Amino acid sequence: MGRQPCCEKVGVKKGPWTPEEDIILVSYIQEHGPGNWRAIPTKTGLLRCSKSCRLRWTNYLRPGIKRGNFTEDEEKMIIHLQALLGNRWAAIASYLPQRTDNDIKNYWNTHLKKKLQGNEGYSRDGLSSSSAAAAAYQISRGQWEMKLQTDIHMAKKALSDAISPAKSSGSVEFEPFNGHTSYAKQSGYASSTENIAKLLKGWMRSPLKMADSADFSVEGIDPVKEEKNNEETAEGFQSVLGFESLDSSISDISESMSPEASLLQDESKPNLNAQTELSLLEEWLFDEGKDYKLCDLALDENVNYF
DNA sequence: AAAAGAGACAACCGCTTTAGA
DNA sequence: GTCTAAAGCGGTTGTCTCTTT
């Protein structure tokens, strides 16, 4: 006997999520909190399996997710972390508090891999092992160390920024919509929180009974009206998720979060402080004095981290 | 203008791990 | 200690759009 499927395959909808589905899911989670995913399809009337709901929330809908344009620092961090950790995207994502593993994985596969292939300075591809040690020998040791030092510094800064108490755990950074992917522009719906906010606006104007509503429906969104009412949009979203403004600065948002939103936010990423066990990587990133040790380790061809 | 190919990203699949009874 | 459901995770696939021919 095989494992039981997470849900009935029959009648389960697949494919891209619609704005309406997102609204239903976000609303339900706002009311009940994340978790108990199995109950969500039946409680909300969503024709999605619990797993799909969880993924949708985790990767796209939960607060605190930054989407679109990866910064240079983020790129370098990913490259370093991938060299050290391999394709452990979840582990890598834990060092980039606003990115999801799926996002990082996609970015790696579509951008960084190719970039590395075309950039000797970084290149690790074509090596039999994914070890950074092997890459080190592609350029002189001195050059490599200098480069690594620079990158370590940048990575440290990025990490430090990410987890500094002033901006950390509650930090939320919503990207302006114009920073989004071609998908966003192309399809008009890219699952961004801002888009959801827009939809929520429309939704809030057509009073609906969320809970226990199997035949839940949402009025269509008129793009023209949408544009006209952009300001109200943020209000609408605030009233649902408790945010002051979607594209506020990090501190603004963390200050203005309602208890409910804070709760959701706290859940949104593993708390770095809770990661009590300091890995080699963490030590490396935090401890100035160990920089060279790691360089040496990485340059030691006998050491295989993977 | 239409077709083909490539690129990018969202979502799914299935295995593994974890937590609770 | 065992079993089961839920969650985590990484690889893969599907779909959409843009670019090239």
TrEMBL record:
Main location: nucleus
UniProt cross-references to SMART domains, sorted A to Z: SANT
Cellular compartment(s): Nucleus
Record keywords, A-Z: DNA-binding, Nucleus, Repeat
Gene Ontology terms for molecular function: DNA binding
UniProt domain Myb-like: residue ranges: 9-61, 62-112
InterPro entries the record matches: Homeodomain-like_sf (IPR009057), Myb_dom (IPR017930), Myb_TF_plants (IPR015495), SANT/Myb (IPR001005)
Entries under Pfam families matching the protein: Myb_DNA-binding
Biological processes, Gene Ontology terms: response to auxin
Cellular compartments per GO CC: nucleus
Domain HTH myb-type per the UniProt entry, residue ranges: 9-61, 62-116
Protein name listed in UniProt: MYB306 protein
Species assigned in the record: Hibiscus syriacus (Rose of Sharon)
